[in-house]
Specification:
about 550 residues; alpha+beta; Cytochrome p450; 2 domains; 4-stranded mixed beta sheet; two-stranded antiparallel sheet; 20 helices; binds protoporphyrin IX containing FE; Cytochrome_P450_fam2; heme binding; oxidoreductase
């Protein structure tokens, strides 16, 4: 076989323009798909030849050796060559995308390099995904740049994958940015053995913490009393409730993981909450996507992603300090929080060769619980208060039911005696749809989805928003309507399409904690205050802001004591 270098040399000794064309020709031959391997060899050879020509042109400047004294390097040829090379590369890239799209479910045609990013407006907008589903059905493919994502739309498609193929669908795609932040540790962005061990530990610890007299519920009740004080201190004046709710929710997680709460004046705690918030937002940012695409480069350039790494370090130091305190002061016989349980687990498993329980994983598990549990719950509670402002008649009906039923501080068990309140809280979660299009998964084995063969390792997005608004399961999917959860006699009625926490092996780890928390916070607040719009304000924006969660626009609220 004649090597690229031999061909180049032959060309150099021949016609002056032929070496320019050689690289082009190889690139064009690569497009004609002789086969994957051959195609790549030609592509690499084409690029190599082209680079060598350019290098020589640079070294010899305006006078290459084959040129006679009157012949000068023609800049036009270089420009022409570069243009054709570029176009060829774009064309190759496009054809490769089309080629790899063949076995995947149908979807809008991707553009070279950017895929469907333009159509998607560079994010996973629920309305756009709806439009695509109308055209291509419940299982379709979109391209985020060069990466195909199979989207599952509506309850049936999501259930067929997450529930019927729970094990196969239990992978999490871990792109560059999340990987760099979590460094392969913890629960939310790990896979395989490490994920299984850490997740199992997380679940059993949350269950253990729910029991006993210092159980989760009494901690949440304690926090709800502090939240009431924060609202009350504003004396019914207009306030932005984001800050107080975020602190209350972060304090519940603090109680779970560190075993104690923090005063909202505590500067270190404020920095923890702020860092946690920053990291969560940055995970969904454009800088994060740039990092996914060019990790080597992004590691070397400044930007908000570098700030996120700094915040992550602060969070890690914070957790390590707590860890040290626990090691020095806590009785291992009486575990009281996640750190205590984890330390006991490290000791218990230290001689097991395949153990993944160590201090680094401990730190990441704690951070995962903070990141996954704070923003989602805070945002849902914000939506809850916003919907109460927009639907004062619903707020009043809930309050009447609470007055009639509750005599003492609410406990989660009370939901069974409060069917209307329970229905309203479920409807808040359904309608708010804080997880938007959901969290991506990947399949750990080859599977068939809706008749399409999907190869192991494909990114699959179970669109949870489409389930929570699936017209087959909700009478008025686009209206806030508590009747979605009530039967004709006014009893609470569950709905199989209520999946805000997802489903299957990777279902939200904090589902129960979040539900208890939201129930106790909201019942306590609505029993104590009437929530009203500030005087003179007649309208509220109920559209969402598309961040990593679907967030409400900032709003002011008056908490008037009842
Ligand atoms: C309203 C509140 C919440 C909502 C709507 C929510 C929703 C979700 C969703 C949709 C997922 C992705 C599941 C999947 O991969 O399909 C998830 C994962 C997760 N959530 Fe939540 N969540 C909430 C609260 C919490 C809380 C309070 C905690 C912790 C205490 C928590 C911890 C986690 C963790 C650790 C994961 C990753 C699980 C894994 O990858 O195995 N979440 N959550």
């Amino acid at each position: 076989m004649v090597s690229a270098r031999d061909e180049l040399q032959a060309a150099v000794s021949g016609h002056p323009g032929s070496q320019l064309l050689l690289g082009q020709e190889r690139l064009v031959r690569a497009v004609s798909f002789p086969g994957w391997l051959e195609s790549w060899v030609l592509l690499v050879q084409g690029a190599q030849t082209s680079l060598e020509v350019l290098r020589d042109a640079w070294v010899w400047r305006a006078r290459p050796p084959w040129a006679s004294s009157s012949q000068h390097w023609n800049m036009w040829s270089i420009c022409e060559f570069l243009l054709v090379t570029l176009l060829s590369l774009v064309l190759i890239n496009y054809m490769k995308m089309q080629w790899s799209a063949r076995p995947l479910p149908p979807g809008p045609s991707p553009l070279p390099l950017i895929g469907n990013l333009w159509t998607l407006k560079f994010s996973l907008h629920p309305d756009i995904l709806n439009q695509i589903a109308k055209r291509y059905g419940t299982t379709f493919t979109i391209w985020m740049g060069q990466t195909p994502i199979v989207v599952l739309h509506g309850l049936q498609a999501v259930k067929d994958a997450l529930v019927s193929l729970s094990e196969e669908m239990s992978g999490r795609p871990v792109a560059g940015y999340a990987k760099a932040l979590a460094r392969g540790r913890g629960i939310a962005v790990t896979n395989g053995h490490i994920w299984r061990q850490q997740r199992r530990f997380g679940l059993s610890t949350l269950r253990n913490l729910g029991l006993g007299k210092r159980g989760l519920e009494s901690r949440i009740q304690e926090e709800s009393r502090c939240l009431v004080e924060s609202f009350a201190s504003n004396n019914g004046k207009p306030m932005d409730c984001n800050y107080v709710i975020t602190h209350a929710v972060a304090n519940v997680i603090s109680a779970v993981v560190f075993g104690h709460r923090f005063s909202s004046d505590d500067v270190t705690f404020q920095k923890l909450v702020e860092g946690n918030d920053y990291l969560f937002v940055s995970l969904g940012s454009k800088w994060g996507r740039l990092y996914d695409a060019f990790p080597w480069l992004m590691n070397r350039v400044p930007g908000p992603h570098q700030k996120a790494f700094g915040k992550k370090e602060y969070l890690e130091d914070f957790v390590r300090n707590e860890l040290k305190y626990h090691q020095e002061n806590v009785n291992p016989e009486e575990p009281n929080d996640v750190i205590d349980y984890y330390l006991a687990q490290i000791t218990k498993t230290k001689d097991e060769p395949d153990t993944t329980f160590d201090y680094d994983n401990l730190v990441q598990v704690v951070i995962d619980l903070f990141i996954a549990g704070t923003e989602t719950t805070t945002t849902t509670l914000q939506w809850a208060l916003l919907f109460m402002l927009v639907h004062p008649e619903i707020q009043e009906k809930v309050q009447n039911e609470l007055d009639a039923v509750l005599e003492t501080s609410p406990v989660y068990e009370d939901r069974k005696r409060l069917p209307y309140t329970n229905a309203v809280f479920h409807e808040i979660q359904r309608y708010a749809n804080v997880s938007g299009a959901g969290v991506p998964r990947s399949n750990i084995k080859d599977i068939t989805l809706n008749g399409f063969h999907v190869k192991k390792g494909t990114i699959i997005l179970p669109d949870l928003g489409s389930v929570l608004h699936d017209p087959k399961y909700w009478e008025t999917p686009n209206q806030f309507n508590p009747n979605h959860f009530l039967d004709k006699d006014g009893n609470f009625m569950s709905n199989e399409a209520f999946l805000p926490f997802s489903a299957g092996h990777r279902v939200c780890l904090g589902e129960q904690l979040a539900q208890i928390e939201m129930f106790i916070f909201l019942t306590t607040l609505l029993k104590t205050f009437s929530f009203r719009l500030p005087e003179g304000v007649t309208e509220v924006n109920t559209n969402y802001i598309l961040a990593i969660t679907l967030k409400p626009h900032p709003f002011k609220i008056c908490a008037v004591p009842r």
